[in-house]
Amino acid sequence: MTSQSPDPAASDESPPRMPRWVKVSLIVVGALILLFLVLQLTDVGGQHGPARHLSSASVIVGGHV
Known about the structure:
Structural class: mainly alpha
């Protein structure tokens, strides 16, 4: 049997690297999720919902129209 020397290029080959656009997309999505969480936890955005756009005079509490 002959001993074949391993190809140095094949043994040192690493798996293909992640494309730059994938890395950038992951960073942007991660930053947006982090921003969303910070805004939710600090309540900076204020109250949201349909009642936010009504004036206090137009809100009827416990009554029927």
